[in-house]
Amino acid sequence: MVAAPDKVANLADDVFRPPFGATISPVRRTFPALLAALVAVGLIAAAIASNGRNEPGRGAVLAAPPAQLAADPVQAVPSASGKVLDEMTRREGTPRRVSRSWRRRERMIARARARIRAKKRAEAAAAAARAAAVRPSYWVDSQAASVANSAPSSPDEAAWLQGGRGGWVEASGFARAPANAPVAVKRVIQAGNSIAHSPYIWGGGHGAWQDNGYDCSGSVSYALAYGGMLGYTQTSGQLMNWGVPGPGRWLTIYANEGHVFMYVAGLRFDTSGRAGDHASRWQLAPRTANGFAARHYPGL
Fold first, then answer.
1. Is residue 105 part of a domain?
2. pLDDT at residue number 73
3. Is the pLDDT of residue 250 over 70?
4. Which of 88, 158, 223, 299 is the most buried (most CB within 10 A)?
5. Can you give the residue range of the structural domain that contains 174?
């Protein structure tokens, strides 16, 4: 509320009234009165301005409380846990994102494992290739060489071989020569044992003596050459003219244009008719010789 002008004047008079019994000149009373009036006017103007600033709705800027102007102290925010975390997870769909991320990671791991397996297979194949490069490229039967130095498998076999009545084919598919057979015949049987279980390969044994498989004429030529009876591989048609005509005592070959086989000490050495567990070229069952030319090495 603003004081009335007359009240301000009375107040000024009271303030500047001289002490009791004192006198003051008119000029001196006029100056204090004027000064008091100016002070009063200033107070009134200040009051009016203050009321204008504090009235709402006039665009006044309200001063912030001192407590809000001070900086808030830093406080630790607690982590969500328990039910709160479960509810946040449910609302944000985190399980679905985790599941997708897990599936992606599983696929990445599966691809990495597949690459590792492929690398191991490639390394194994390379190792096998290196091992094959140092191995002989021809058929090798490690058991065949031990037949000549081992004893017969039964007393009946020993009696048969000692009696000189012919050779013997064991269950292993290897043959034994009778005790009284010539050295060349024994060598032919030994050579036949070394390729008795080798694969049949058409043309095998014709490019080189040592091969990874043999056909009919390659097999017969290999055994005859080892016995010292042939200097190079011949086809079945060429073997029709080998040696001398007719059957021999210890060794006879039977040849035509399409096939050749032989009997050595009564045992048939033939690529056809191979059967059984061992599928050996040495066979006991005879076969017909019709249509074949019989030839033998002189003296045998």
1. no
2. 56
3. yes
4. 223
5. 144-296
